[in-house]
Amino acid sequence: MNDIPECIKLALPHRVGGEIINAAKKLDRVEEIRLHCGRRATLTSLGKNVATPAVLTRSEMDSVLMRLCEGSVYAYRDTIAEGYISLRGGIRVGVCGRAALSGGKICGVYEIDTLVIRIPHQSPPLGKEIIDLMKEGGFTNGVLIYSPPGVGKTTLLRSLAVMLASGKDARRVSVIDTRGELAYSLDSPMLCIDLLSGYPKHVGLTLASRTLGPEVMICDEIGSRAEAEAICEAHNCGVPLIATAHASSVRELLGRAGMGMLHRAGTFGAYVGISRSGNFSFAYDICKREDADIAYLESRG
Questions:
Q1: Which of 40, 198, 222, 240 would staple 142 via disulfide (CB 3.0–4.6 Å)?
Q2: DSSP letter (8 states) at residue 180
Q3: What is the pLDDT of residues 238-271, one digit of tens each?
């Protein structure tokens, strides 16, 4: 069974690991393993949720967390407080439990009840349509890709990074990989890629645009005000950005303060909604910047 990485198999308790692995064998591709304390574990395959018989006890959930953290939960305390753990191979684990607060900010998480293990996959080349959009604009404006969670935005970004940074027309690509997910499959020595791993997005974007001389920057899941300000600065330096965000429509997307700032600055030449049309294929809903002006005005009421 190649869908579940060996490090994840080894982290699963023997009592329930077999049930999870057997359920995975019946699926075409496992994208997520969702472990719950006291409730059935589920698998996500091609966007559908499949229940397994496996129910983890509190001690089993604690042991999985300890194994994923290589014996030291303390070493991962900062990212756990932000809701995730990054593992080798581009695997991200979402973490949910009881939050400990200090000064109104989360300083720790305890009594972990849920672990969501996202498993990356190799894919054929995806996103030629998006690269064509950037070529039309002379690579002066970026593209913002949006969809609800779980559709495949990160997979698409990896493919775009590979296509842009390889071949006879390779461009210098800076990838800001805050959570260690994008790096999966970007290790070929033939790629013209600078990988900023673990940098907060706004820090990585600013550093890349000022010091690395990229022709394209790529990052996942933007949205904060600090990120918007860093993106505007990079845009003013003439560096286009391909990024993603969670949204179900352009109007919803542009109704957010940070996104509105980026739209007014002309950062993105197009907004592209994606939906699945197959195992490794997407349907694209392309909205050029001028057409998005209407949605922006509507979002402002």
A1: 240
A2: S
A3: 899 999 999 999 999 999 888 999 999 999 999 9
Measured CA distances, 19 to 22, 41, 51, 57 (Å): 5, 10, 11, 15
If you ran DSSP here, which 8-state letter would residue 250 be given? H
Domain positions in the chain are 6-118, 128-299
d(CA 142, CA 137): 9
Burial 219-256 (b: 16+ CB within 10 A, else e): bbbbbeeebbbbbbbbbeeebbbbbbbbbeebbebbbb
pLDDT score, position 122: 77
Secondary structure string (H, E, C) spanning 45-102: ECCEEEEEEEEECHHHHHHHHHHHCCCCHHHHHHHHHCCEEEEHHHEEEEEEEEEEEE
Mean predicted confidence (pLDDT) in 30-48: 93
Specify the CATH number for 128-299; select among 3.40.630.30, 3.40.50.720, 3.30.360.10, 3.40.50.300: 3.40.50.300
CB of 146 closer than 8 Å to CB of 271: yes
Q: How many whole angstroms separate alpha carbon 55 and alpha carbon 36?
A: 7
> Which CATH architecture is the domain 6-118 placed in?
2-Layer Sandwich (3.30)
Q: Is the model's pLDDT at 79 over the cut of 50?
A: yes
The rounded distance, in Å, linking the Cα atoms of 177 and 212 is: 15
Which two tokens mark 150?
A: 């779980």
Cα 68 from Cα 84, distance rounded (Å): 11
Residue type, 186: L
Q: What is the CA radius of gyration of the chain?
A: 20
Q: Which segments of 186-279 does DSSP mark as H helices, in order?
A: 201-211, 225-236, 250-254, 257-264
Model pTM above 0.85: no
